[in-house]
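hey so i finally got around to running the thing on that chain from the lab meeting. sorry it took forever, my laptop kept dying and i had to restart like 3 times. anyway pasting the input first so we r on the same page abt which one it is
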Amino acid sequence: MITGLAHICIESRDLEATETFYRVLGLKRQFDFRNKQNELVGFYLAFANRTFIEIIKNTTVGGEGIIKHFAIEVDDADEAYESLKNAGYAVTEKEFAGDNNWMITCHDPNGIFIELQQYTDKSMQLVGGVCEVDYKP
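ok and heres what got predicted. didnt touch it at all, straight out
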């Protein structure tokens, strides 16, 4: 069912400084999140193995960054949904996300938000591009 860690999401006050840091480590920008005014509000940075760091702008973050959530890549979102539901966990219905993948979400017993993503041939994680979002930092 699980094929790997899809991404972690970090909130950042300074997108440019954050990208610069991770570029030094060899990561490259895979795709951007832009709002309807075409302002950059975040982006994905890619490792070499379909694993990513999602950086989202948040001007209220204090001195240290916050991990907002993490995502797990699955090969079958329907199977993951059924497994969680049958085990008694609250899980959202499968939806097609703006970055062109199938997704369900839940929380672990500690309250950590988790996305379970099934990539498609058009998933931005694989092909890049710009994902328009309705996001206000």
